[in-house]
Amino acid sequence: MTKRFQILGVWMILVYAAAAQTRPATTPRVFLMDADRLAAVKKAVAAKDKSYGALIASIDRDAKAALVGGTFSVTTKEITPPSGDKHDYMSQAPYFWPDPLKKDGLPYIRKDGERNPEINKITDHKSMDRMTDAVENLGLAFYLHGDENYAVKAVQVLRAFFLDPATRMNPNLEYGQGIPGITKGRGIGLIETTQLTGVVDAIGLLEGSKALTSADEKGLKDWFGKFLDWMQTSKNGMDEAAARNNHGTHYDSQVASYALFVGKPEIAKNILETAKQKRIASQIEPHGRMPLELERTNAWGYSTFNLRAMMNLATLGAWVGVDLWNFETKDGRSIRKAVEFLYPFSIGEKWTYQEINGFKPDPFYPEMRTASAFFRDEKFKTMMARIPSENAGSRDILFNR
Questions:
Q1: Alpha-carbon span 322 to 339, nearest angstrom
Q2: Is the Cβ–Cβ distance between 335 and 279 less than 8 Å?
Q3: CA dihedral 212, 213, 218, 220 (to 10 degrees)
Q4: HEC assignment per residue over 41-68
Q5: What is the pLDDT along the chain (401 residues), one digit of tens a residue?
Q6: What is the DSSP letter of 204?
Q7: Residue 214 three-state SS
Q8: Cβ neighbours of residue 228 closer than 8 Å, sequence gap 6 or more
Q9: HEC-encoded secondary structure of 129-164
Q10: What are phi and psi of 339, to 5 degrees?
């Protein structure tokens, strides 16, 4: 990157950081979603402007379905966790299968990238998925339309999953991604709670509604505060923090997001400053390869998955004045280099690493669009010219910066 564009990039970050700290009343308090884009869509709704028609129609459709849907809880699973408490989240490692050489199949053996359908017997992950989808869709619909019915339902879903003593999830992941015959739970299980960063943003969309009471907000912040503490002090949490691949990056993204939500920016800032060396410098090679992702059987999928986490960290960095978009080591390791390495494969160059489920370039496109908002030099303009246009109804629009 030329010096001119380095200066431009830093200027953009400073402007964005200032905006993040002093959001106008018309924008919601969200950390990973684009508050300004949300405000623009809301303005279009009020003006009956059809610029975002496909996106609004998609949100309305999903929100209306959630409005008549149920609530969700980890206590509805049929299998009881080792603790004996159904309030504890529980899941099974997806890539482990019964050992065909053992009569009882124990201990299970690893088949990377091959999902064992047996994991579906434990329903907590599905319940969390459905809760997250419902809250996000209802939160968006409330923010855009101001219809309290959406907020009422969203708060019901939040209360059932996080607050109601009869149905709430305990704020820990002691039994996430257990492996039969080996372990009851692992730090790796925390990859399943990455979606809770979306719940944090959805709560921000609900602020100002009559349905979300001060007691609800306090209770939700208390839950996420306890979960944050568990992530930073438990063995499983510390194991995931030490992970050197996408698991560690997504761990950092969660910690920073939850810390900002509960009002502990100093924790977020420390995580994000440390990410310069701990995540970017250690995971990305000078030419942009992410070797620990490339050694997987779904190398493309995991490379783009890790890149998304890196960009989440960069987005969160703006809240505490940490510039990860323009961070680069002396030998050239950076988010930009990771994007540039993956780009040629998204436009037709043959992918030479493993991809057992078949290579599809699509997962990279949203990351390229996001990166192009920060790296605005001629090289990126040329690169973007070959990236397919975004689906007008895609929620990714709300994350592009």
A1: 20
A2: no
A3: -30
A4: HHHHHHCCCHHHHHHHHHHHHHHHHHHC
A5: 444 444 444 444 554 455 455 555 678 999 999 999 999 999 999 999 999 999 999 999 999 999 999 999 999 999 999 999 999 999 999 999 999 999 999 999 999 999 999 999 999 999 999 999 999 999 999 999 999 999 999 999 999 999 999 999 999 999 999 999 999 999 999 999 999 999 999 999 999 999 999 999 999 999 999 999 999 999 999 999 999 999 999 999 999 999 999 999 999 999 999 999 999 999 999 999 999 999 999 999 999 999 999 999 999 999 999 999 999 999 999 999 999 999 999 999 999 999 999 999 999 999 999 999 999 999 999 999 999 999 999 999 998 64
A6: H
A7: helix
A8: 255, 258, 259, 262, 264, 267
A9: HHHHHHHHHHHHHHHHHCCHHHHHHHHHHHHHHHHC
A10: -65, -45
Which letter does DSSP use for residue 78 in this model? S
Q: What is the DSSP string of 324-381?
A: -SS---TT--SHHHHHHHHHHHHTTPPP-S-BTT---SGGGHHHHHHHHTT--SHHHH
Q: What type of residue sits at position 231?
A: M
Neighbours of 175 (CB within 10 A): 23
Read off φ and ψ for residue 277, nearest 5 degrees.
Answer: -95, -40
Specify the amino acid at residue 152.
Answer: V
The residues near 146 (Cβ < 8 Å, ≥ 6 apart) are: none
Max CA distance (Å), the chain = 67
CA distance 138 to 99: 44
**Burial zone of 176 (CB within 10 Å; 0-12 exposed, 13-18 middle, 19+ buried):** buried
Query: Does residue 280 contact residue 310 with C-beta atoms inside 8 Å?
Result: yes
- Going by C-alpha positions, the residue among 52, 243, 56 that lies closest to residue 145 is 56
Give 63-66's long-range contacts (Cβ < 8 A, gap of 24+): 63/137, 63/138, 63/140, 63/141, 63/150, 64/141, 65/137, 66/133, 66/134, 66/137, 66/138, 66/153, 66/157
Residue 341: count other Cβ atoms within 10 Å of its Cβ.
18
How many residues in total does the chain contain?
Answer: 401
Q: Hey, CA dihedral for 251, 253, 254, 259, is it positive or negative?
A: positive
The Cα–Cα gap between 206 and 5 comes to 38
Residue 203, classed as helix, strand or coil, is helix
